[in-house]
Automatic annotation (TrEMBL):
Residues 111-244 form the GAF domain. It comes from the Bacteria. SMART domains: GAF (SM00065). SUPFAM superfamilies: GAF domain-like, Putative DNA-binding domain. This is Excisionase family DNA binding protein. Gene3D superfamilies: 1.10.1660.10, 3.30.450.40. GO terms for molecular function: DNA binding. InterPro entries: DNA-bd_dom_put_sf (IPR009061), GAF (IPR003018), GAF-like_dom_sf (IPR029016), HTH_17 (IPR041657), SinI_DNA-bd (IPR010093).
Length: 247
């Protein structure tokens, strides 16, 4: 559903707002100075909020283009919040916008919070799973905002089962990773924690972007009962609300 409070802008519309050439806006978008994404037809788009933010950072309406560029490029997103050039994992059409939303959430690399820790404990309990995670996906890694049953803080994005889960509206379930051609050679299947079962539900921000998942993992092949799966979905909804509240 379109966000009427933060409309999508073409490069030409953004250039008019900023008082610069369309080619300049295109360059800033390519450099990451303006958060943007590409349509299926290859056209760059951005949100009005991104342009207003850039205007707020620019010293005055009379600033030269060079000063505006300097102000913009000082806010280029880190590489892990920019799409990988040749990703070795599946991505959706909105990966660029998803990464912008994830950076804007300011959740990655933040300290543990009880509001998320409580959710993973409940997810583990209601599904009988030894491992439960709130996982956030940058372009280079999956980082665990909350976890139970796992020591590591993160893994490479290429290993993340969650990269598949965020592409779906419904729960993503792998009943036996050891015989699934998508995952049987995954280092997390071949080595610790020796994943066999996985179920993940996307965590979405207020605009519907999937920032990561609430997922449960087992070291044995299995299925979830319908009540267990529904409980996981309900907990993911609660976790999404916490993401949207940002504390």
């Amino acid at each position: 559903m379109p966000n009427s409070k933060d409309p999508i802008l073409t490069t030409t519309a953004a250039a008019r707002m900023l008082g610069v050439a369309t080619s300049t806006v295109q360059m800033w978008m390519e450099n990451g100075a303006i958060a943007s994404w590409k349509t299926p037809g290859g056209h760059r788009r951005t949100r009005m909020s991104s342009i207003r933010s850039l205007m707020d950072r620019t010293p005055s309406q009379n600033s030269t283009v060079g000063q505006a560029v300097e102000a913009a490029l000082s806010h280029v997103s880190p590489l892990e919040f920019q799409p990988a050039a040749t990703p070795d994992y599946p991505v959706g059409r909105e990966e660029a916008a998803r990464l912008v939303a994830l950076e804007s959430s300011r959740l990655v690399d933040t300290p543990p919070e009880e509001r998320f820790e409580r959710i993973v404990r409940l997810a583990s309990l209601v599904t009988g799973s030894p491992i439960a995670l709130v996982s956030l996906l940058t372009s280079s890694r999956q980082w665990f905002k909350a976890k139970v049953g796992l020591e590591t803080e993160e893994t490479p994005r290429a290993w993340a089962f969650c990269s598949h889960a965020v592409l779906h509206d419904e729960p993503f379930v792998v009943e036996d990773a050891a015989i699934d051609p998508r995952f049987r050679d995954n280092p997390l299947v071949q080595g610790d924690p020796r994943i066999r079962f996985y179920a993940g539900v996307p965590l979405r921000d207020g605009n519907g972007q999937a920032l990561g998942t609430l997922c449960v993992i087992d070291r044995e092949p299995r299925r979830l009962r319908s009540a267990e799966l529904q409980a996981l979905v309900d907990l993911a909804e609660i976790a999404s609300e916490e993401v949207q509240h940002k504390g």
